[in-house]
Amino acid sequence: MTRQTKKRLGLLAAFTLILLLPVVGTWARLGREKCCAFDGEKILPIYRVRVVDEGGASHVFCGFTCAEKWITAQGTEPTIIFVADEKSGREIPATSAIYVRSEVITGHVSGNKIHTFENRRDAENHARSYHGIILNHWEQAKRSNSWNGTEQ
User: Quick one: which of 94, 100, 128 has its CA closest to 113?
Assistant: First the structure.
């Protein structure tokens, strides 16, 4: 091989690596699961809570309890909160969700028992099936939530 050919092959290899780097980076991150910003627990999509802070940054949590603890620790109110509808997994504004406190624990670390639904019928079905009570909004759910396994 001539020196010119080796140089061209080297440039071609370097150019190929540069082009493949973003693809390799994306592929490497695919296996990583999203973790809760409060306790590091794996986030199941149907229990996901996303809080947008005053700076516009999103913080994702494994459930209501972790999100509420994080918000309390911040000392400032978030710009907006989104919760997942447990039936569809779709993200909805927390202000439009229907909350249920039931016996079903969604997070082993947090002990979260608050569930969120977009449709009232789904919330009622969950409450009936799992000995729960319907809560009207985030603040009522916050007051009803048990952080230590006992009623507050």
Answer: 100
